[in-house]
Design a protein that fits this description.
8-stranded mixed β-sheet; alpha+beta; 2,3-Dihydroxybiphenyl 1,2-Dioxygenase, domain 1
Length: 122
């Protein structure tokens, strides 16, 4: 059910060096990189761990930059889950749609303000 987890950082190069070494011990490799972050895992279709500079531009703190991602099997399922989260009182944090390549996702906060997303590839 979990697709990936992100953790915030204020020093991406330092954090990248740490996680390259640490997660290499577990057989993980960099799966994607972009200006704000990097993610590691054993395969693109398995859970991964990412580090990111927080999207809002504020300093990373415990919780800021942390997001739980829920993997879906189709775009239709992404649409349904995102809509259901909003219907249940969640707050939209980014409408469903393509986020580059074949990454299709929608973002929301639960009733306590925790950030989640639901996504699929393809």
């Amino acid at each position: 059910m979990i697709g990936y987890v992100t953790l915030g950082t204020n020093d991406l190069p330092r954090a990248a060096a740490f996680y390259d070494a640490l997660l290499g011990e577990l057989g993980a490799r960099r799966l994607w990189e972009f200006e704000r972050g990097i993610a590691w895992g054993v395969a693109a279709d398995r859970p991964s761990l990412g580090i990111l500079k927080p999207f809002d531009g504020h300093a990373a703190t415990v919780g800021n930059g942390v997001m739980v991602a829920l993997v879906a099997v189709s775009r239709e399922q992404v649409d349904r889950v995102h809509a259901r989260a909003i219907e249940l009182g969640g707050k939209d944090e980014g409408p469903v749609g393509l986020r580059g390549g074949n990454f299709y996702a929608g973002y929301f906060r639960d009733l306590d303000g925790n950030k989640l997303n639901v996504f699929c590839h393809g």
